[in-house]
Amino acid sequence: MISQIFILSAKGDHLIYKDFRGEASKDSINVFYEMVTALSGDQPPVVMSHKDLHFIHVRQGGLYWVASTKTNPSPFTIIEFLNRLAALTKDYCGSLSEKSVRMNFALIYELLDEMVDFGYIQTTSTDILKNFIQTEAVSSKPFSLFDLSNVGLFGAETQQSKVAPSVAASRPIMSSRGEQGGKNEIFVDVIERLSVVIGSNGVLMKSDIQGEIRIKCFLPTCSEMRIGLNEELNIGKSQLKGYSSAVRVDECRFHQAVKLDEFDTFRILKVCPSQGEQTVMQYQLCDELPCAPPFQLFPSVEKDYVNRVMIFLKLRCDLPPKSTALNVSITVPVPKGSISMSQELSSPDQTAELQPKNKALLWEIPRFPGGAQLSALFKVDVPGISSASLLEVGPVSMSFELPKQTCTGLQIRFLRLSPTQTGLSQRWVRYVTHSDSYTIRI
Amino acid sequence: MTDSKYFTTTKKGEIFELKAELNSDKKEKKKEAVKKVIASMTVGKDVSALFPDVVNCMQTDNLELKKLVYLYLMNYAKSQPDMAIMAVNTFVKDCEDPNPLIRALAVRTMGCIRVDKITEYLCEPLRKCLKDEDPYVRKTAAVCVAKLHDINAQLVEDQGFLDTLKDLISDSNPMVVANAVAALSEIAESHPNSNLLDLNPQTINKLLTALNECTEWGQIFILDCLANYTPRDDRESQSICERVTPRLSHANSAVVLSAVKVLMKFMEMLPKDLDYYGTLLKKLAPPLVTLLSAEPELQYVALRNINLIVQKRPEILKHEMKVFFVKYNDPIYVKLEKLDIMIRLASQANIAQVLAELKEYATEVDVDFVRKAVRAIGRCAIKVEQSAERCVSTLLDLIQTKVNYVVQEAIVVIKDIFRKYPNKYESVIATLCENLDSLDEPEARAAMIWIVGEYAERIDNADELLESFLEGFHDESTQVQLQLLTAIVKLFLKKPTETQELVQQVLSLATQDSDNPDLRDRGYIYWRLLSTDPVAAKEVVLAEKPLISEETDLIEPTLLEELICHIGTLASVYHKPPSAFVEGSRGVQHKRLPARAGSGESAESPDVGQSGPTEAPPAVIPSQGDLLGDLLNLDLAPPTATVPSVQPSMQMGAMDLLGGGLDSLLGGDIGGSPSMGAGLGAAPAAMPAALGSAPAVGGGLGDLFDLGGGVGMPTGAYVAPKTVWIPAMKAKGLEISGTFARRGGIIQMDLSLTNKAMSVMTDFAIQFNRNSFGLSPAGPLQVLTPLSPNQTIDVSLPLSTSGPVMKMEPLNNLQVAVKNNIDVFYFSCQYPLSLLFVEDGKMERQVFLATWKDIPNDNEAQFQIKDIHLNSDAASNKLQGSNIFTIAKRTVEGQDMLYQSVKLTNGIWVLAEMRIQTGNPNYTLSIKCRAPEVSQFVFQCYELVLKN
């Protein structure tokens, strides 16, 4: 059972504090803040305890969302709940920041009152909550250059106009009641996270993709929406693939509001989206990447003179030529005691630096077109080098973003609202693949 | 205009200003003012002075304003109870409002105001709301009962709210059902014995139906409640499992974990050969794997749980090794947990893959992670014999990197590998010796010294190496000093001619120049051993070492069982039982897994038929590791065994305690201690004992019968049947079973020794570790030698209570070492406390009365003895047979009250009051004692005696 819930700013200011059971004092906020700031990097921050009070927290939007308890509840329940609370706050207030929480504290208190009673979680569904909530959201300025949380998900707004501007999705869902500004928009995002391990011989050793379809809905009334996926989508490991270019996932899970009666034959998800953001489907694919991994690396590491290691990296992007990878960064562990580095890069927009503290060098490429090949040479000075030092040049890790791409090939065929919405409703479909953990061994 | 302006700092007279605004006529202004008040309240300012003004705003039809006022009330009512009464009328009126939102709001808020005077007024509205037509009001009222119970439990019972709450379990609305279940579960936790949540097949069916309809959070309440139910048979268990499995594909991980908990528990009841059992195992894997794709926080919690599941049922995830491979961007705490699970899952089938991964990890950046990875390689070698060679060569490669901490970790694990596979990999010693200088951590230094000492005969310059360590002897940590002492003594015994000077030097350093008692003691023991009998010294110091076990860090089985019942809770993250971190009565009940149907599999679940007619004696045998730990005087975690077990759960978990640096201590601390040495070394065959039919008593002890006979006791004491204390496979062919008895004032340990090996056994001797009541053998173990293969011999060993005393955990734990010509074996057993009840334990009535009053009430413990079909006289007679004396009997309203006393060998008096109601098979036993820790065990004796 949850004892208290509080939201703190990164500096430890009390933004929201609610006590549900009267069994712990308000001092616990400060206790928590001291503990969380004193935490060293390798301690699991998930559950912390002070005397007989236990804190569970998540960090979202730069804020601490904390629940305390004196009993033995499920941390899963509480973490899921705190994440939902943050998501709901975002839905109701438009964005998630210290400012938006401060501006809407009355609304958040009201939400909390309905969501939790005596520490028992009651509901987190916007459909149910909208029957009770009286307070109107106050939204912050629609767009601010400094508000970095707006850039987030699709660093791609520099791309062509086909992509919805990312700020469009960060506004309160309920504001339409008062003002005229609210558009009838719905966003459907297909987001995949890619984990790959490539062996030192260039062979793909392990790969998996975690994907999800997320809806962000600003439609005031609930009407049924039909989302058509690729008709040839196969689910399960045992499916025969034959010669078709079938899209396959191992396993999928659905939001409990999704109706699946047309899924088996037509691959259509039927859902009445509630306002706000929700994940309608999650899926995963292990070990069989339907396409080549997006990057191949051809490294060579040599000892040069007495005190220098030469690292020559050739990196090829195996995406189709029309696509581009963004914000590619490559981290290469270097031997202990490396002091300086000189590099030769192929274009001026790339950067590279040595981070002696992390024993690594970081090479960053803002844009990397499909089919291209880039190379770089790094000369790292390591005083007192030994032959074993070369062994320390360990697995290379990469992070990147592939806009308009899904690695599984999952596509949204259509998006239909029925009955047809009165007035204009805009529908957006966006795809993106993030690297989760992309490791290439040397 | 935004709300953030409310947070601006207080100016002088702000309260005054607010007061004016609160009393304004304009609604908008009032609302703004209340918002400001609440903003001040959030940042911690005291705005309680505004109480009357805020309460005045309560009577409004504006719901937004009303909610704000209620928010304020909840916060300040406690500090202003008299003022809070002002609000009561409005609350009561609101509870009658036609709008269900307002009715629910009023009842919810009233429950949160923890003021006694208000709660009185709450009862009537609450009663109405519990029967309200609107489900939203009913579900709020259900929670309100729990709130009220928290404030005033008696009131809730008197008003009959509990029954109404029980009725709500059958409500048509699933949300109401879920809240009723949650409220009842919480109330039931504070009344462990009440039958509040009367779980029977009908209610279970209702819950399962509601499960499909309610919200995700409601599903969690219901699943957690289901987990407390114990199905009647495997069929019911299976049908519940079938209806719970669909929850495994829920998107909310909390629902998934609660479902996993139910399945893990009920699975225990399914016969293993059932097809469905296999299906269920397969179904459990994917949801667990999916949890690992969540955020790191959830991943960590999931991994802690998977760690438990893997220990209990490794088969579930044995094919899923790959998902536990670490990603470079996992936080370190996730990496370390993953590594732990990888080792647990490592087997011959996947070892190549695992090893390749571990080797990669060993070159990563994070020091802690690299260390653990190196250690993991060593553990693989020990666990999977086929991989040992590859592991060793991998470790050697890593040593070549010369990275300081890698080298040190590698040496520590290589030492364990030497222990596991003697005479196989010693060729690498030369490489290890090259790195001697770079070792700066005590553990690595100690490991290296152990290696040098152990293989002194193969290392030409062993004496030089050890001598180099000796230079800074006093700057070393104790661990290294002890190890160095032992290593040099070993070296001396192997190469006496060249090292005499060295050994003298170290002995004098240890005994004369050191302040550390452990070091001095060990130094003296070696010194005496070497000076009196070098041959014996050789046998002790260079004795053959027991093998080390494959698995390390296993959780003790009874704790594991309990933790499995708490999957998905904080307990499963801390790996501690809830009683260890939850205050008060809540969660103290120990949960346990149900017993499997079908009797053939009792080994699988040790706690069989707790109240069955063939009750087994409470001979709990904790894991072997604890025993060894205590015998070695090592500070291990105390065993948490509280569940009586039939099968000795011989858990060799901590065997490798003896590993590494400590093996030679075995010689030092056990074999080497003078008393023990004497005991073990004594020639046992000399006694012409009359070992007739059991119960046999040594002839010379027959006289003692006369002494005891003066008390005139019939030998009616209950003696538990013998149980196996150490199975043959753990003791090189010797099986020992036994029990304890008190016969005519003499405590006896009845042993059956069975030789299941191929060769003859001789030279038996026995020794006890220090224990709570100073039990020790009163004579040598008399065994007619030799014990030929397949022969069983019954021996009775008289015990005295004059041995050294050390408090054990549990109190009645006894750790025993038995020696024969083959080896020394250790086991532990528990004796019934009735062994220690003396014959003159009958207290004078007056003394009894005075003592009973004198002992503080805090020391009183109450127990229930169930299913006894004896009248009070029969019970009293039976108890007298075990020296539990009835002093007085009183009959009040058909209830017999027996007042009884017991005296323990060490002079502790235990007073008891037993209440027997005619026709009720359950007795109530209250025990008072100045040493309350014995009460539990006295109660166990009562139960044992009465049931047999």
Can you give a write-up of this model?
Chain A: This is MHD domain-containing protein. Chain A: Keywords: Coated pit, Membrane, Protein transport, Transport. Chain A: One of its GO terms (cellular component) is clathrin adaptor complex. The complex is a heterodimer of chains A (442) and B (948). By secondary structure, chain A is mainly beta. In chain A, 12% of the residues lie in helices and 41% in strands. Chain B is of the alpha+beta class and 948 residues long. Chain B has 38 helices and 13 strands. In chain B, the strands form 3 sheets. In chain B, strands 1-2-3-6-5 form a 5-stranded antiparallel β-sheet. In chain B, strands 9-13-12-11-10 form a 5-stranded antiparallel β-sheet, with helices on both faces. In chain B, α15 packs antiparallel against α16. The longest helix of chain B is centred in the first third of the chain and has 17 residues. About 12% of the residues of chain B have low confidence. Chains A and B meet through β2, α2, α3, α4 and β7 of A and α2, α4, α6, α8 and α11 of B.
Keywords:
heterodimer; A: mainly beta; 12% helix; 41% strand; B: 948 residues; alpha+beta; 5-stranded antiparallel β-sheet; transport (chain B); Clathrin_b-adaptin_app_Ig-like (chain B); B-adaptin_app_sub_C (chain B)
